[in-house]
Structures are given as structure tokens and as C-alpha cells.
Design a protein that fits this description.
The protein is mostly helical and 250 residues long. The chain has 11 helices and 2 strands. It is globular and about 50 Å long.
Amino acid sequence: MATPPTRPQKERQAFSLILLLPNMLTVTAICAGLTAIRAGVHGNYELAVQLIIVASILDGLDGRLARALGSASKIGAELDSLADFVNFGVATPLTLYFWALQDFRGIGWIAVLVFSICCVFRLARFNVGSKTGGGLGGAYFEGVPSPAGAMVVMLPLYVSFAFADGPVVPPLVISLHMIVMGLLMISSLPTWSFKTTRISRGNVKYVLVGMAAFGAALATFAWQMLILASLAYIATVIWAWVNRKRLSRR
């Protein structure tokens, strides 16, 4: 018969609540993504987009917090990957579908499926690369990351919220936009990784002022700023495509 664990052993098996905070953020992000789907079903598209953006912010925080607390784990990494698929590979394309593609069912639904499958392949490739040391590494990702792909694929929604009360982009263009973004996620195109960007000590104050100005503009003109941010990211992807041979050799 196995000996029951002693009190010190039980204490060693216990976790500090703060060490669970990264996983709690990940679960909150999943809840945000699922609630975004619910909001999309009920036609509350602005709330759906806002919840997906919240999920992307939490996605950027949970891993960094886990590393800062020394609580990174295999389960946390897998949970984070599943959260990314729910939020960016399911909630995002479904929101676009409910918003503008329900009357364009054939090509519209194909676009949703292509984007979702590309997202799950992107995440699987990233997981394998992180375990085996593959990928480009350094200052570049291989392909567009799933959070960035989700934020950019919602560009037609931002345009609509900023300048009209309904879709202003034809359904065919929205569908093609989704397919292209999906293919970019699984491409070998080197895309800029903001995580490795270094700033000289003398420029820190200017960056902080710029971030404060961007935050204030985002709070005041949210959809317009998201349009600009999406177009700026698209510009970096185009630049990476033009310089792909040189960047792949790094």
C-alpha cells in the first residue's frame, strides 16, 4: 500500500496563487474569445471586436508574466496555444462571417475555413519550432503570427465602424482578404518580431512619449487608429516580402 504524502510533501505540491496568474490570464482570454462569438451571433459586432482585442492583449501578457514569475510550464504553453486558436482562428473569422458573409455563404465560408486551418497550422509550426529550435529566430518570425493576422484580417470591420454603419467592403474582397492573411500565416515570409526590438537608452523617453500619444489617440479615435496600425503592419509585411531573400539569410 502506498504511503500517503506527509504534510511537508503536500506543502511542496501546493502552488502560490500568484504563480497561477499567467494561466488565469490565458483562461480569461479564452472566455473573451468565446464571448466574442456570442456577441457576433447576436449582432453586437463592435463588442465582439473589442473582446478579441482584449484577448490579444492578454495573449501578449501571459507568457511574459509566466517568464517573469518563473512559472512557465508545458501545460501553460499548450493552454496558450489553444487559446490562440480559439481567439484568433475561430472567434475572429466567425465574427467576420456573421458580420458580412452570411449572404455570401459559399466563398465566405470557404474563406473562414481556410483562415482557421491556416491559423492552426501556424500555431502547430510555431510549437514545433519552439521545441526543436527551428524557425528563423532572432528579430523575425516565420510567417505572420496568428494574433497579428487576426488583428489585420479585421481591417474591414474597423473601416466600417469608423466611417459607416455597415459593411463598406464587398464580401468577395473580405473573403479574399481572409484567405490571403491565412496564407501569409503559414508562409515562410520573415516578418518583424517586435519582441526583440532594442531601443537605445537615449531614445527611451521619446518612445514612452510616443506610446502615450498613441494610447491617447487610440482611446479617442479607436477605429481610425486600428486602421492605421493595420496598414502600418501590412507595410512591414510588404517590406519583408520585397527583402525576403536578404532577411532569410540572417
